[in-house]
Automatic annotation (TrEMBL):
GO terms under biological process: protein O-linked glycosylation; sphingolipid biosynthetic process
Keywords for this protein: Glycoprotein, Glycosyltransferase, Golgi apparatus, Membrane, Signal-anchor, Transferase, Transmembrane, Transmembrane helix
Topology of this chain in the membrane: Single-pass type II membrane protein
Record's GO cellular component terms: Golgi membrane
Name recorded for this polypeptide: Hexosyltransferase
Enzyme class: transferase
Subcellular location: Golgi apparatus membrane
Catalytic reaction(s) noted: a beta-D-Gal-(1->4)-beta-D-Glc-(1<->1)-Cer(d18:1(4E)) + UDP-N-acetyl-alpha-D-glucosamine = a beta-D-GlcNAc-(1->3)-beta-D-Gal-(1->4)-beta-D-Glc-(1<->1)-Cer(d18:1(4E)) + UDP + H(+); a neolactoside nLc4Cer(d18:1(4E)) + UDP-N-acetyl-alpha-D-glucosamine = a neolactoside IV(3)-beta-GlcNAc-nLc4Cer(d18:1(4E)) + UDP + H(+)
Pfam families given in the database record: Galactosyl_T
Family statement: Belongs to the glycosyltransferase 31 family.
Name of the gene: B3GNT5
Record pathway: Protein modification; protein glycosylation
GO MF: lactosylceramide 1,3-N-acetyl-beta-D-glucosaminyltransferase activity
Superkingdom of this protein's organism: Eukaryota
Amino acid sequence: MDVRMFVSGRRVKKWQFIQLFATCFVLSLMFFWIPIDNHIVSHMKSYSYRYLINSYNFVNDSLSLKRSEEGVPRYQYLINHEDKCQMQDVLLLLFVKTAPENYNRRSAIRKTWGNEKYVCSQLNANIKTLFVLGTPSDPLIRERLQKRLVWEDKMYNDIIQQDFADSFYNLTLKFLLQFSWANRFCPHAKFLMTADDDIFIHMPNLIEYLQSLERIGVQDFWVGRVHRGAPPVRDKRSKYYVSYEMYQWPAYPDYTAGAAYVISGDVAAKVYEASQTLNSSLYIDDVFMGLCANKIGIVPQYHVFFSGEGKTPYHPCIYEKMMTSHGHVEDLQDLWTDATDPKVKTISKDWFDIGVWSRQKRFFWLIILKNVVTTTHRISAQAVKVLKFNNSPTFIG
């Protein structure tokens, strides 16, 4: 009898423990359900919904935002170079989105990946680099800074500027400036690229890549770091907040990170036409690009060595393959020197081609390398998203 009571007592305690554990689990789930639903579940829903957005014509048609009564905004050029591409065979028209006050960034780019003379003499290609901006937003320094921009352009002849205020909330106006300029003054460029001014571009790798695409006559081409099934931010505290009135759907069409992407010339012309039918009040320019592309049926291609918002690891083996890396200001010149050093290919070749390595092992390590890059990009991108959510002022359009 005593033994039975002892066993029964143990079972009761075990059952009580299970009940207590289950209760704690349910309470924890209830406590964390709201943030889980907002952050993860909503993203899963939006990722599923993207197949409708990207695949069905009736959804594509409904994504065309109603044009405002004023139509597409028109602004006047303050600085322009109409003959930048005239009568020239241009492989790449490169637009760099920059703020008026970022002279040091523009100067560093002119000495590195944006240097037209370097690309022509060393890479045997013709590119045209243009810095795209609006007017200084701060009225206290507007006149002085504008005079400095005029002086800077007289020195380098590489700035285009219209008379809208240069701010984060006018990024789509900067987008329209790029595509309208390309359509009017350089429609024959083989490729168009848009990039931020804190990006590093491995120009030798990029030119080699684009030349290979040109040889096969690629069309309907759009490549970069692809965001798939991204949901609109509905938190009013975020600078990326988008209201239901502005965009009612739970997911954006697939788009590439605005930090750097490349399109073929035929896509540039089609995107320009599509942009004239959309309401530019949606100020997130890379999403706006996705809407334009979705309207004309262009799908972005993912490229592992376009970093998007991520920062590429510093390593010679990665330098040999990399296209872009985000978040380079102070280290741009040093990275350019290291990444374009001819010794990089030798180091990488020695790393992969040493006698003990079989083809299978080299392939295995290449996969690992790509996974390292991808993981690093994801971690960096998540960090950027946290900063964006907290309204970090570090973003430069």
